């Protein structure tokens, strides 16, 4: 039967033993090879990270040159200045500074005028029903 299987598979006999339930071939240097492979992968990863760190440092130098040339501040610097300004504004206050209310929000007079405007467009028979209640 082995002969027939070998002929049918055309020489793919290495994995045949495993498929038929036979024992796997043990490579005496398999563990050593695996350690070498893991070491090579780790080294490649370190080289890749170093390469990209170097590229990012070069990009940051170019960005800083552009910022210096045009007087642009970094986002972190802007945020730090804004936080410092807020801190100075609220030094004497015990509560946090109030946020500005956008126009149209919370104006009761404006809401009443909207209701009046809507009531103008309602037909008179419906208006009479609302007024009776």
UniProtKB/TrEMBL annotation:
Residues 1-60, 76-112 are annotated as: Disordered. Pfam families: Synaphin. GO terms for biological process: regulation of neurotransmitter secretion; synaptic vesicle exocytosis. Keywords: Coiled coil, Cytoplasm, Exocytosis, Neurotransmitter transport, Synapse, Transport. It comes from the Eukaryota. One of its GO terms (cellular component) is terminal bouton. It is found in: Cytoplasm, Cytosol; Perikaryon; Presynapse. Residues 15-60 have a biased composition (Basic and acidic residues). GO terms for molecular function: syntaxin binding. The keyword Lipid metabolism does not apply. PANTHER family: COMPLEXIN, COMPLEXIN-1. Binds to the SNARE core complex containing SNAP25, VAMP2 and STX1A. Belongs to the complexin/synaphin family. This is Complexin-1. The lineage of its organism: Eukaryota, Metazoa, Chordata, Craniata, Vertebrata.
């Amino acid at each position: 039967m082995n002969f027939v299987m070998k002929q049918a598979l055309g020489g793919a006999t290495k994995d045949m033993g495993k498929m038929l339930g036979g024992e796997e071939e043990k490579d005496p240097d398999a563990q050593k090879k695996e350690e070498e492979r893991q070491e090579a992968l780790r080294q490649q990863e370190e080289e890749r990270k170093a390469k990209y760190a170097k590229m990012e440092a070069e990009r940051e130098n170019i960005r800083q040159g552009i910022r210096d040339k045009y007087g642009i501040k970094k986002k972190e610097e802007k945020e730090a200045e804004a936080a410092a300004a807020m801190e100075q504004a609220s030094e004497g206050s015990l509560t946090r500074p109030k946020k500005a209310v956008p126009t149209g929000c919370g104006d009761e007079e404006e809401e009443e005028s909207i209701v009046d405007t809507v009531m103008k467009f309602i037909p008179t028979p419906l208006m009479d029903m609302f007024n009776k209640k």
